From TrEMBL:
Catalytic reaction equation(s): malonyl-[ACP] + acetyl-CoA + H(+) = 3-oxobutanoyl-[ACP] + CO2 + CoA
Record has Transferase as a keyword: yes
InterPro entries on file: ACP_syn_III_C, ACP_syn_III_N, FabH, Thiolase-like
Family named by the database record: Belongs to the thiolase-like superfamily. FabH family.
Function recorded in the entry: Catalyzes the condensation reaction of fatty acid synthesis by the addition to an acyl acceptor of two carbons from malonyl-ACP. Catalyzes the first condensation reaction which initiates fatty acid synthesis and may therefore play a role in governing the total rate of fatty acid production. Possesses both acetoacetyl-ACP synthase and acetyl transacylase activities. Its substrate specificity determines the biosynthesis of branched-chain and/or straight-chain of fatty acids.
Gene of this entry: fabH
The species this protein was found in: Caldimonas brevitalea
Protein name: Beta-ketoacyl-[acyl-carrier-protein] synthase III
First-listed, main subcellular location of the protein, grouped into a coarse class: cytoplasm
Amino acid sequence: SIHSRITGTGSYLPPRRVSNADFAAELAQRGIETSDQWIVERTGIRARHFAAPDVASSDLATHAARHALEAAGVTADQIDLIIVATSTPDMIFPSTACLVQQKLGVHGCAAFDVQAVCSGFVYALTVADSMIKAGAARKALVIGAEVFSRILDFNDRTTCVLFGDGAGAVVLEASDRPGLLASELHADGRHVGILCTPGTVAGGQVLGDPLLKMDGQAVFKLAVGVLESVARSVLEKAGRTEADIDWLIPHQANIRIMQGTAKKLKLPLDKLVVTVDEHGNTSAASIPLALDHAVRGGRIRPGDTVMLEGVGGGFTWGAVLLDL
Ligand code: ACO
């Protein structure tokens, strides 16, 4: 039977790094009060990167994709599937994946976007894995890319300090050796309102509010519970236990949610990959960014068992267990 494996990872952060202190000073000019101390204590975030106004998700995605292709030793024209997970696409249509395909200088392969907010990357990876196992693709680029700075309300200190821009990518290839061991996806549309960007465009006008809204405490409570249960379910499907996990890469939203999840799974905190401190919450990009940083930093090595976990707006959540 056909398996799928990650053969290369890549990522990209826009160069403008904004520390909490810089951000607090900027916000103070608009009469908004916050501090490095408040942000670090509540979230673990110390800095985030913001893209320049003329840089779009497809630009960040293309940089990350090139790095992943290089790491995999695969050329863009060998790719037969491109999936981009994003909630901040360049356009209403065509998909960001089609724009990435064009920027990579190739054409012909399947390309589409997946929209599951902060769970987008685990959704996209699961779809690519299923297509490879079904024989519909052999070499896929799976990308998470976001410019959340475009949808932030910089007058709302409870949300604007949490997010950043960036992209991460993997090459997922058909293999006769197992790589992706098990995955599971969920959604509960009853919770649409706790995390949303409810506006839309119609008749050439923005209808409704196009900026991010969040009930932080409601999200926090839901997130910890679903992340524990989906991780246990995926381990069971794969016939593995918590002790088999070498690295836990949860969606990088908040250090307290991440540490809470590790504790519930009885994992020592040194198995938790943390990039939220330097990246903030980059939504669909956070997991592949963290994975690539840990791989390039020499922490995650070939053969390691990694649990990826996403959770976010929708409400959506999911997990993927893989051997690298
Ligand atoms: N700076 C200073 N003070 C602030 C700030 C800020 N940036 N933001 C809020 N405050 C104030 C509030 O006004 C409030 O003041 P008050 O007590 O005078 O009313 C006080 O801090 C406490 O606010 P809470 O909202 O109760 O703070 P809480 O401890 O819940 O932390 C947070 C807020 C960090 C958003 C938390 O709820 C959280 O992390 N939730 C999880 C949501 C999350 O991570 N979402 C990311 C996207 S979802 C996802 O990806 C899973």
